[in-house]
Amino acid sequence: MIEHGPSLQEASKWVQELRGQLVLVKVGGEMLASRAILNRLAKQIPVLVRVGLRPILVHGAGVQVDGECRSRGIEIVKHGGRRVTTPETLGVLVEVLHGLNQNIITCLKAEGIEAFGMDEEVQRSVVCLRRPQTEVDGVKVDWGMVGDVQRVDPSALIQDGPWRVPVLPSLGTDEHGEFVNVNADSAASLAACSLGVAKLLLLTGAPGVMGSVDDAGPISQMTAADAHQLIDRGIAKAGMKAKLEESLRALEGGVPAVHILSGKEQHTLLRELFTDEGCGTLISAK
Fold first, then answer.
1. Among 7, 56, 65, 107, which is least packed, fewest CB within 10 Å?
2. Could you give the CA distance from residue 135 to residue 141 in angstroms, rounded to a whole number?
3. Which of 21, 22, 34 has its CA nearest to residue 263?
4. Which residues are CB-neighbours of 126 under 8 A, at least 6 positions away?
5. Is residue 2 in a domain?
């Protein structure tokens, strides 16, 4: 484990390049299930603010929602890893997301920076269309209260003056103003495009994108074409495939760079942004 973050000397050129820029960090529910991991993240985000970056957080709650549904006897139905969301399930989702959202904000404020989230209705900036019935593996699926993100309205998120960190849950509103469940990776990639961020960082349990199970570490840098190859050849599977697909969507939408990296270890966010070698996988358009 790396005990120290990047040196000031090494970080300075990257700080200069990114100062004043928006960077979006997506963290999944599996990361937030660990208080230690949340604390590590909460210590890194203030560093970004203090050196002049403008971070935005997007978070999910898949693990926590599954657990709460089981405890209440609510059936969990998923197709292709995507959740069918009944009104009962949505109620659990909103409750769980609110708790996680407040935990993140509390941790950030304890580190001396301002943040805001569901209590100020940031989720209403995520504008969706209700997902129609689709066919999955030959079965017609009614997704219920699930939305496909169309855009993210910056007016409630981007502020003048000292930066307050927006913390967006994986929740949006449909064309009727009703809450809908959204995929956190999809919300992050569309938010990155809508807001014009300089970097999209997807924190995961893996160290980055692996070329094969035998590799000693992740691929340090790759292009969109490389990512397509990993998907087409079946090397990237399940959650990593989904992250690569959202990374490609972000790149196609004008985001200059996407990073996939571990959220588990110390200082990974700072090392990926502010060192020459990084610690995860950097994906660029070309």
1. 7
2. 6
3. 34
4. 147, 149, 152, 168, 171, 172, 173, 182, 187, 190, 191
5. no
CA torsion, ordered 201, 207, 213, 219, to nearest 10 deg:
60
Pick from 4, 1, 41: nearest CA to 167: 41
Q: Domain with 148 in it: what CATH number?
A: 3.40.1160.10
* Cα–Cα distance measured from residue 35 to residue 172, given in angstroms and rounded to the nearest whole number: 26
- Supply the pTM of this predicted model: 0.93
> What separation in angstroms does the CA of 17 have from each of 8, 139, 202, 267?
14, 49, 20, 20
Q: Give the pLDDT band of residue 117 (cuts 50, 70, 90).
A: very high
The tally of domains found in the chain comes to: 1
Q: What is the pLDDT of residues 153-197, one digit of tens each?
A: 999 899 888 999 999 999 999 999 999 999 999 999 999 999 999
Q: Is residue 1 part of a domain?
A: no
Query: What is the number of alpha carbons within 13 Å of residue 58 lying toward its C-beta?
Result: 29
CA 271, CA 286: separation in Å to the nearest integer?
23
Two structure tokens written together for 77: 């139905």
* Rounded CA separation 109/122 (Å): 17
Enter the tokens of residue 172. Answer: 């949006």
